[in-house]
């Protein structure tokens, strides 16, 4: 452990006792905590205003701007947790990979990584490479008070998918070609990414993040046997690397109904569930000893307030017997969402579950 580690239990008591962290620890809560994946971003006019003229990746390296954008949804929606404003490709950019986030497209990598020689371009990440993260989180913990901050990173498979494909991909052909065709190179690539991701999460926890989420957004493209053999060792390594801090570790992917048990087994304390599997069924698949996070279909937000409430009610009913439940969407907030529908949803969940 490095010298500036904040030992477990040293975070402010009010943060430790927040509804969000209690639910993650499967303790009784005053109300079901709510936050939204991608809550900090394009659905908010105040976000678009402060981001005007600043490219996405540049904005991630500006501590004051990061702190402001992270705070915006907390102020507006009264969510129970903040998520650090950044992107999963930030640590890759920080070690010198030539990539950009193209508006409306996503991360694009200039020279994809497909050979042993390419792998050498993935050097170690140091805390100094991402100094702006430490600085921004310092600003945030001061402003957040008792509201916990969630740090995050992309999981090795999802990062590998962007690096190997060179950009977003529907079927992950190059990624799977490498995974099946050169298992040793694949294992080495995922191991490298696990190292980088572990450092990135440690930096965030040491700076003051009270929980972390590992996004394996695209791993639902794999069958369980392939996940277990070719992905789980690297994801487990990341969870193990941050275990000593004692902060809740959340794991999420889209279309991962068949992988939920394995994703818990990989080392998550909280398993994120998309909208395709009801939470009671998800609990059966994950097994005891884990909290669940989810899982209203983000598309429902475009419907009437009554329809949103009805769907939220369904989610809460399915969650009634869970050991711990963090309310969330089944994936990120769509950019064209009416922010008021999110504010109303937070209020609905809070009032329906107040104990
Ligand atoms: C796969 C993935 C990425 N990034 C992320 C994931 C995993 C989550 C998921 O499954 O959605 C994670 C992410 N990206 C962003 C956050 C910020 C915190 C939050 O509010 O959740 C988080 C947690 C900001 C962002 N990341 C991005 C934006 C939009 C860029 C902008 O506002 O200019 C934001 C706010 C860009 C981005 N970056 C990525 C994509 C697919 C896109 C969208 C491309 C587009 O449609 O424009 C890669």
UniProtKB/TrEMBL annotation:
It comes from the Bacteria. Its main location: cytoplasm. It catalyses: uroporphyrinogen III + 4 H(+) = coproporphyrinogen III + 4 CO2. Pathway: Porphyrin-containing compound metabolism; protoporphyrin-IX biosynthesis; coproporphyrinogen-III from 5-aminolevulinate: step 4/4. Substrate binds at residues 38-42, 87, 162, 217, 331. Its EC number is 4.1.1.37. SUPFAM superfamilies: UROD/MetE-like. The record marks 87 as: Transition state stabilizer. The keyword Nucleotidyltransferase does not apply. Signal peptide: none annotated. InterPro entries: UROD/MetE-like_sf, Uroporphyrinogen_deCO2ase_HemE, Uroporphyrinogen_deCOase. Pfam families: URO-D. Keywords: Cytoplasm, Decarboxylase, Lyase, Porphyrin biosynthesis. PANTHER family: METHYLTETRAHYDROFOLATE:HOMOCYSTEINE METHYLTRANSFERASE RELATED (PTHR21091), UROPORPHYRINOGEN DECARBOXYLASE (PTHR21091:SF169). HAMAP family: URO_D (MF_00218). Homodimer. NCBIfam families: hemE (TIGR01464). Catalyzes the decarboxylation of four acetate groups of uroporphyrinogen-III to yield coproporphyrinogen-III. This is Uroporphyrinogen decarboxylase.
